[in-house]
Amino acid sequence: MKNIDIDNRLIFPATLRNRDVIAAVLSKYISPNSLFLEIASGSGEHGVFFQKKFPSIIWQTSDPELVHRKSINSWINHEGLFSKMPEPLDLDVEKRPWPISKQLRSLIKGIVCINMIHICPWTCTKAMFEESKFLLDKNNFLMLYGPFIIRNKQTSESNLNFDQSLKLQNPLWGIRHLEAVNELALENGFKQHNVIEMPANNLSVIYCLN
């Protein structure tokens, strides 16, 4: 057993609320004996949950924040997954090229990003698509989960309030327009494959390479 202090574990309440419904979406797209890269893994709670939910895969976490990577390692250790799950990558989407080895690159079958693009500048979303296209092929997927604004569809009051609170914290943050994300995806060779409505006014958006 690795000597990692489990007191480094962070707890994000949203994870407990959404992990089952996200896993239900993932179950339709993941393939066994494959590796999936999670961008901005945060506390690591999603990562260990998905690893236990889908034991035939390898879930590769990543995060640019040291405090988050410590939490991820602690959760991996706490759940007894240290022999299965690799340590989190120190990956900042805007620092390119991403620290992905040739071996890891050959194993990745999907990329998952949960609740990130609204709490970072738009340039992060741009970088994510630009780098992801080099890691995936037509049989793989890129999944985004979180709140979106959709043209010609009324935005919930809770999401409007959330959007304003984000912009007060940082004017470069905010809930993204799905049409703008789709346009960025197309510029990088991706097409929108599916949009799944999720609880609490969130969406799971699946992209595949053309």
Question: How would you portray this structure in words?
Answer:
The chain has 210 residues and is of the alpha/beta class. It has a single domain, classed as Rossmann fold (3-Layer(aba) Sandwich). Helices cover 36% and strands 20% of the residues. It has a six-stranded mixed sheet with strand order 2-1-3-4-8-7, with helices on both faces. Helix 1 runs parallel beside helix 2. The model has no long low-confidence stretch (mean pLDDT 95).
- Helix % is 25-40%
Rounded to an integer in angstroms, the radius of gyration calculated over CA atoms is 17 Å
Structure classification: alpha/beta
From N to C, what is the helix and strand string?
HEHEHHEHEEHEHEE
- Could you tell me the mean pLDDT? 95
The fraction of residues assigned to DSSP E strands is 15-25%
Q: What would the CATH topology be?
A: Rossmann fold
Features:
single chain, 210 residues, alpha/beta, Rossmann fold, 6-stranded mixed beta sheet, two-stranded parallel ribbon, 8 strands, 20% strand, globular
